[in-house]
Amino acid sequence: MDKNEEKQREEEREQVVSPWEVSSSGKIDYDKLIDKFGCQRLDQSLVDRVQRLTGRPPHVFLRRGVFFAHRDLNDILDAYEKGEKFYLYTGRGPSSEALHLGHLVPFMFTKYLQDAFKVPLVIQLTDDEKCMWKNLSVEESQRLARENAKDIIACGFDVTKTFIFSDFDYVGGAFYKNMVKVAKCVTYNKVVGIFGFTGEDHIGKVSFPPVQAVPSFPSSFPHLFSGKDHLRCLIPCAIDQDPYFRMTRDVAPRIGYHKPALIESSFFPALQGETGKMSASDPNSAIYVTDSAKAIKNKINKYAFSGGQESVELHRKLGANLEVDIPVKYLSFFLEDDAELEHIKKEYGAGGMLTGEVKQRLAQVLTELVERHQVARAAVTDEMVDAFMAVRPLPNMFD
Amino acid sequence: MDKNEEKQREEEREQVVSPWEVSSSGKIDYDKLIDKFGCQRLDQSLVDRVQRLTGRPPHVFLRRGVFFAHRDLNDILDAYEKGEKFYLYTGRGPSSEALHLGHLVPFMFTKYLQDAFKVPLVIQLTDDEKCMWKNLSVEESQRLARENAKDIIACGFDVTKTFIFSDFDYVGGAFYKNMVKVAKCVTYNKVVGIFGFTGEDHIGKVSFPPVQAVPSFPSSFPHLFSGKDHLRCLIPCAIDQDPYFRMTRDVAPRIGYHKPALIESSFFPALQGETGKMSASDPNSAIYVTDSAKAIKNKINKYAFSGGQESVELHRKLGANLEVDIPVKYLSFFLEDDAELEHIKKEYGAGGMLTGEVKQRLAQVLTELVERHQVARAAVTDEMVDAFMAVRPLPNMFD
């Protein structure tokens, strides 16, 4: 092994992105991830195309590159342009009661896609996965799935176009048949290569990838897509889920379906800085949708990693390092006003604004977002959850 | 490796018994199998106990040692004696249209157990397994499952005590939850040790053992056994299925259930002789339930391996070798009259009866059995199949 190889291996060790682990010794190198996973960069021409086709401004997450990678998005848009609709598929592993802001990102974006393209959406709650990986009981996983469904519904999805399901409730029938069809096409060696399972992992883990794969196929939802086996599927998700869908795309044509298209986001960083996803075990690493205004303010002031200089004098002279500054990063996710964001970046980067001022603005923005979510979630009744999760046709899903 | 070790390995290579392969260079050594699998021999005192508890003569398959091994049968009988009922679970992998006599053995015996103990029965048709192992389409596996269900129903099961299900129809809900619970408790290394899977096997195979495991747990059938989580389960099956239930018994107490008890049969031999199970790919190795009287007679005369001597003179002098004689072996399965069987064995073994005479009697016995089955099967309507396979309570299942 020569020096270059050694260096490359070292770098690979430093950056781990899988559905169960995102870690990096420095900032995640997303360019490297695109190369490694073999997906495509979502460039400006695609953003422009989405704007043109939907007749509305692209979502903040799209125009600011939060969703930065894709697979076959062009094909989906080609078909859409010719009048061929598609459906959206996203999901969540219900491992905790309270969602943090990072959890909201794919749902906020999916809500925009649903509204902009006027298409149906299926949302998978992988309570079986969390039961197996997190050693939760079946009952607790199911309870968390329902609790999380309330937060998801609070994002504003259209009940006439949206089917939310938990695996423990829904696996069976056509869905199970597709699981078997997928499982037949994937060797154990293959899943070891994709997911890194070991012989001491339980077989539940080995059995799970087909469960996350098959919502990509319309026939898994006969109450929605009966007779529409060639309906295309677009999956908005964080890029750590890419391994599941690489596997799915590999299998799809062999069992008679389109490969699902993907639109993939970077990770929402921890308050402490951009070295991976937030840690569920450290409540101070994230803003939760259940946090109070006071808690939000405290967390931001105390934990949000600042790119500002050590003294006011130095800061006025050198300005903030925006590359590592978490308040600016968070604002770029959630401050909708492009002009104000540019103003803050310019002033803060030049030393005209201090960290405290930026943090104060961020606290305002996040408090507003979180309080809006809390009001919406409080209005979600059990009956509404039942309505979203009912196995039913959606006659107006393409209107 | 010394000579003894070499010899032992050689012997182990010669006898392979797994759910997918039964082969042996000579007769299967069932004593060795009992030792290897770690089950118990079903001795005369247990047969007597079954007779005493059920108040009826033990089935031919029991009193002649076709069912020769067990696990925890004593526990089931202890509980039964105290008034605690149990349920029966057996199954079939629907890989072919026509069943042969060997396929009928567990069902004929299960029917006897159901009648004698007056207990409910669940019958699993593993269409998912056959779809994965035999590379059948989902649709073809399901069609075969329904066709096989007709043959099973023709064995005379009581519809008020019997639930037949196909995995493709029934997997889901409580059944799937138990699959996940089992899968969590079994490592990949463990299933490799039990079933011999390799890295090039597809993950459908790795995922399947929990599917065959969970009918052992009453909570997999909430429409039958709701609130009866501690109901015991007795599984009549051929001994090649033992690996599935070793795994199941290992897991059961860890997820709060009784270990299922087992009553296990030897294999019904091929016409060509006792070196394993019959080959589905060679129609002349077995009598099928669809065979005509003429076909039965021809197959027996042409293919049934005889222990008789080469010439009539030699035969009269030495008698038949009953140890290897297939007609006598088949009669010991299906000729109910103990006295007549003893008479034939004595006369044939002493040279008083010729192979032709024994074969003629066997043809009579099997023709009667097969024709009775054909009449019964012709009377099985689609409505009856639907009735047996309906997910429904069985209010009188213990009467």
TrEMBL record, chains A, B:
One BP term from GO: post-embryonic development
Keyword Ligase attributed: yes
Biased composition (Basic and acidic residues): 1-15
A Pfam family of this chain: tRNA-synt_1b
Keywords, comma-separated and alphabetical: Aminoacyl-tRNA synthetase, ATP-binding, Cytoplasm, Ligase, Nucleotide-binding, Protein biosynthesis
Localization in the cell: Cytoplasm
GO CC, any one term: cytoplasm
UniProt-annotated stretches for the region Disordered: 1-20
Enzyme's top EC category: ligase
Gene Ontology molecular function: ATP binding; tryptophan-tRNA ligase activity
Principal subcellular localization: cytoplasm
Keyword Zinc: no
This enzyme's EC code(s): 6.1.1.2
UniProt-listed InterPro entries: aa-tRNA-synth_I_CS, aa-tRNA-synth_Ic, Rossmann-like_a/b/a_fold, Trp-tRNA-ligase
Record-stated family: Belongs to the class-I aminoacyl-tRNA synthetase family.
Name of this protein: Tryptophan--tRNA ligase, cytoplasmic
UniProt organism field: Citrus clementina (Clementine)
Organism placement in taxonomy: Eukaryota, Viridiplantae, Streptophyta, Embryophyta, Tracheophyta
